[in-house]
Amino acid sequence: MFSIDPTDRTPIYAQLERAIRAAIATGRLQAGAQLPTVRQLAVELAVNANTVARVYATLESAGVIETRRGVGSFVTDMGTRAVPARDRRRLLTQLVTRVLADADAAGFTADEVIEGLRARRAGGS
């Protein structure tokens, strides 16, 4: 369900957090969905279990997931609303700016990025 790109210069914990948040935002993970255990995900992604635990702790403190001792970690109904409404526009502007800058550096146009987002939203890759 999640993937890590070892060639990406972004730290593994940041890639994993972004992947989980993206899965929630796109509806691949719904409220109430159970995440893999820390150990399961660490083995699946071939990363240190402490890295996965760190990501889960960060997401839990943000209200995106909740961990029930002895049961597992689950997406909360706040998963997609974890950012306060007053900050959403500012954060979206920052995100769009970063995405467009990265795309430009990689040789993509804004239209290609938009097309890629549409394809991703429709379930393509």
Tags for this entry?
Arc Repressor Mutant, subunit A, 125 residues, 54% helix
Walk me through the structure.
The longest helix is centred in the C-terminal third of the chain and has 21 residues, at 85-105. The protein has a two-stranded antiparallel ribbon. Helices cover 54% and strands 6% of the residues. It has two domains: 12-81, Arc Repressor Mutant, subunit A; 85-121. Strand 1 and strand 2 (72-75) form a beta hairpin. With 125 residues, it is mostly helical. The mean pLDDT is 87. Helix 2 packs across helix 3 (49-61).
Strands, helices and their partners?
Blueprint: H1 12-25, H2 38-45, H3 49-61, E1 65-68, E2 72-75, H4 85-105, H5 110-121
Antiparallel strand pairs: 1-2
Helix pairs in contact: 1-3, 2-3
How much helix is in the residues? 40-55%
Largest sheet: 2 strands, antiparallel
**Uncertain segments:** none
> Count the helices. How many?
5
CATH architecture of the largest domain: Orthogonal Bundle
Number of strands: 2
What series of H and E elements makes up the topology? HHHEEHH
What's the end-to-end separation, in Å?
13 Å
Brief write-up:
With about 120 residues, the protein is mainly alpha-helical. The chain has five helices and two strands; from the N terminus they run H-H-H-E-E-H-H. A two-stranded antiparallel sheet has the order 1-2.
